[in-house]
Design goal:
Blueprint (H helix, E strand, L loop, with lengths): L7 H5 L3 H9 L19 E2 L5 H7 L1 H7 L4 E6 L5 H17 L4 E7 H11 L8 H7 L7 H16 L5 E6 L4 H10 L5 H23 L9 H22 L6 H17 L1 H9 L5 H12 L7 E6 H4 L14 H8 L4 E15 L12 E4 L8 H6 L5 E5 L10 E4 L12 E4 L1 H4 L2 E8 L6
Parallel strand pairs: 2-5, 2-6, 3-4, 3-5, 6-11
Antiparallel strand pairs: 1-8, 6-7, 8-11, 9-10
Keywords: Signal
Protein name: Erythromycin esterase family protein
Organism: Hymenobacter jeongseonensis
Length: 440
């Protein structure tokens, strides 16, 4: 399994051979193979035959989430149709009943901003071109499209609008273009800086995309120089903006775009200034904090289990833990995280070393759960779909192998990490047999 859970861009800072090795490095799974025995009384059966039956079954779970400021809906793989579908249904309930107005994807801020503009338009013919341009391929599927279409329909008939946002900072071009467009009539200095940022983020994106083509030499010095220049340009723009007064409508968009670019180029700032790797998890936590800065703001996060978990399951990240751990510190008692998992079926994945908007997704079979894993134990429970409140599990505080599949096809023994469920999630939703997400 590709190690996509720490910082994707950091891998690209290495030499080409080292980057490939980094991308394939995985930790050793737990050696405890004793079968976990589950008490049937803690299993909450879920009916997925329709939205309304599902809504009724998860009512107690929704009540636990409803008063939180940040609710994270995790995914045990980046390509399972049921994980997208059921998270959409949970998102819909939280938006309709509990006052949540934002859903934030593990995707770049500027790109999601462009999609969000379409979700507020009077008419919407086809989202596919925008999804393919602005979403990583893990989100380019029919299941995500269904949620986005629902959001647009909701916005056309409700005064209280719902928003799509991004909390990642892998790509910066859309944010830079947003700044160039929004600040086109500002001072000559600001206009020039936004034009520089478009050039710098475009080059950065091209270098990143080229990493998937082994015939193209990896130009590390060029990437480092451009990345540092981009960081300095962003800082200069941030200082210049302090001298101008923007219309209220523009302030939030500009502030979000600037912050996302500062975090995008943090990958180059940290190694040069602080001699350490940039933490992608802290980046996503900072963008989440930006989204809920307003009074009464609440957000639903869609990201991988490994990010939203309170205890980062991947060894080696010495930057403070996963996104979930950062958010728990930022919002004590106001953070709820739901993990998702499965046992068998198929999963959509790509063979690309680094995920992009153009990474091809195809269906692959999931390997059978390994002995002693949480997935093996859940697979033996009678309901095909259910959720558990992790603190009610007798073995929840003990570390057992837990499968975390990224965007690669690999789902065997190297995809497991020793994890105590009660330290990672508030609840876990399990679907015994799942199918690959349907590409657009």
């Amino acid at each position: 399994m590709k190690s996509t859970f720490r910082t994707l861009l950091a891998a690209a800072l290495l030499t080409a051979p080292a980057a490939a090795a980094f991308a394939q490095t995985v930790p050793t799974a737990a050696t405890d193979t004793a079968r976990i025995v589950l008490d049937a009384s803690v299993v909450n059966s879920v009916n997925t035959q329709s939205y309304f039956l599902f809504r009724q079954a998860v009512r107690p779970l929704i009540e636990q989430m409803g008063d939180k400021k940040v609710v994270a809906l995790g995914e045990g793989t980046h390509g399972t149709a049921e994980f997208y579908k059921l998270r959409f249904w949970l998102t819909r309930i939280l938006m309709e009943d509990k006052g949540f107005t934002q859903v934030a994807l593990e995707n770049s801020y500027g790109d999601c901003y462009r999609l969000n503009q379409a979700l507020h338009s009077a008419t919407l013919d086809d989202l596919k071109p925008l999804m393919k341009k602005h979403l990583l391929s893990i989100w380019q599927n029919r299941e995500t499209e269904e949620m986005l279409n629902w959001m647009h329909t909701y916005n056309t008939s409700h005064l209280r609008k719902v928003e799509l946002a991004g909390i990642d900072a892998m790509y910066g071009t859309a944010a830079a273009e947003l700044l160039r467009e929004t600040l086109a009539h500002s001072t000559p200095e600001i206009v020039a800086l936004t034009q520089q940022l478009v050039q710098q983020t475009t080059l950065q994106a091209q270098i990143w995309t080229n990493l998937n083509d082994r015939s193209i030499p990896f130009k590390r010095p060029e990437m480092m120089a451009n990345g540092w220049a981009g960081y300095e340009t962003t800082e200069q723009l941030a200082q210049a903006l302090k001298k101008v007064k923007l219309p209220k409508k523009q302030r939030a968009a500009v502030a979000g775009a600037v912050q996302s670019l500062q975090l995008h180029f943090d990958t180059f700032y940290q190694p040069k200034v602080n001699k350490r790797e940039s933490s992608r998890d802290s980046v996503m936590a900072e963008m989440t904090k930006f989204l809920v800065r307003g009074k009464g703001s609440k957000v639903i996060i869609w990201a991988h289990n490994a990010h939203v978990s309170r205890s980062l399951p991947v060894p080696g990240d010495n930057n403070g833990g996963g996104t979930g751990k950062f958010l728990e510190r930022a919002f004590p008692g106001q953070y709820f995280v739901l993990g998702t998992s499965t046992a068998t079926g198929t999963v959509a994945a790509t063979t690309h070393r680094f995920i992009t908007t153009a990474s091809p997704m195809a269906a692959y079979p999931l390997d059978a759960p390994v002995a002693g894993s949480w997935e093996q134990a859940f697979n033996l429970v009678t309901p095909a779909t259910f959720y558990v409140n992790t603190r009610q599990l007798t073995a929840a505080g003990q570390k057992h192998p837990h499968r975390l599949v990224g965007y690669s096809p690999q789902s065997g023994a190297d995809s497991y990490y020793p994890l105590a469920l009660s330290r990672a999630y508030d609840a876990l939703l399990f679907v015994r047999q799942t199918t690959a997400a349907t590409p657009l």
